[in-house]
Sequence to fold (433 residues):
Amino acid sequence: MKQKPILLRHAAQLVTLQGTSAQPVTGTAMSTLHIIEDGAVWIEDGSIQMVDRDEVVTAFYRDRMQEAHVIDASGKVVTPGLIDPHTHLVFAGSRENEFEMRLAGKTYMEIMNAGGGIHNTTRATQAASEEDLYEEAYQRLNRFLQYGVTTLEAKSGYGLTLEHEMKQLHVAKRLQDTHPIDIVSTFMGAHAVPAEYKHDPDRFVDILVNEMIPEVAKSGLAQFNDVFCEHGVFTPEQSERILRAGMEHGLLPKIHADEIEPYQGAELAARLGAVSADHLLRASDEGIRQMAEKGVVAVLLPGTAFFLKAEAANGRKMIDAGVAVALSTDRNPGSSPSESMPFIMNLGCLTMGMTPAEVLVAATINAAHAIKQAHRVGSLEKGKVADLVVFDAPNYSYMQYNYGVNLVDTVIKAGKIVVQKGSLTHEVSVSPA
Ligand SMILES: N=CN[C@@H](CCC(=O)O)C(=O)O
Ligand SMILES: [Zn+2]
Fold:
């Protein structure tokens, strides 16, 4: 049955971000939101048909007003659907015991090197059925939706064998087919060196390069290839080998870079022309300069720094250096167990020196660029997918000022209302499995 058109009316601030689809937004342009006051949007067939002042849209659709479902956004802010460009969505179990160990003084890497951390979640994920992984991730996606996220990237990386990495990627594909949120998949077999290769990590790199990457690429289940380039995990040389192998098979490179220690990760991202470099808490000034020069998007994860009690990446410095900055939750069970993009935006302002305008750009169009989706989503423009969020806030600054609170009122995904008054609408609340 054809769906009714939606007419969203009288938004106090309609944040359009128009004209930002071709290139990631950098520098002072990250302060320009292209806001329409008393704005309206006409949505039909899943996409945006018209974005303008209320009087213009209603005059144009005068003869069809009766057939539309009208949403009154008076006194509210409307933005593009939020985009989370870095999650480890599909996994089993949780690690609150390690959280307590860290509060008592152990570090993230100490726990991982003792066989916990990523290894802990890998054991749980390997043991889990595809069905259980699907159900857990589906509920996680529902929470993302309630926080206004309409597109996200999902990494594998808790399987660490071809069989179990493929299991994670299959679950992500099934979620893409059944859940309203759009999912872009990344292969991250290089998330940790499995215990059995601890004394010969290059052997595991050989397996990644010669066996896993070609099979994953052939399956079509992933678009990107990611590696945890960190002291004690994969060296810059191993990371380069893994990412180049992915590129040879059509998988675009991404990298977990300079998270715990400065490790030349940003420089490697620039040299390879990676789509994004993520984390970057300890990136060098030279690495930042090279990323700006090569157009590598910096995906910053202030929730991870907050949760690990580390000093956040210097978002301010990166923007001032001309790097396109995006924000993400880094949702995973160890270093960032949260689905709240709004809180991540709060942290962008409060811990990384970013402004309310910049965090909005970083959580929408630049996040879309970080996962090659900016042609479809990330701004409110005619022809784009109708992904929008109505926030119960009088202006966009208020969204950062009233921190830690979920102000999401309504979410529209591909032209369908999926969240209303902060709650999931009936049809999306139950997993179809
Ligand atoms: N740092 C590496 N990987 C994840 C954490 C994974 C985990 O601890 O389970 C991250 O991006 O923070
Ligand atoms: Zn990550």
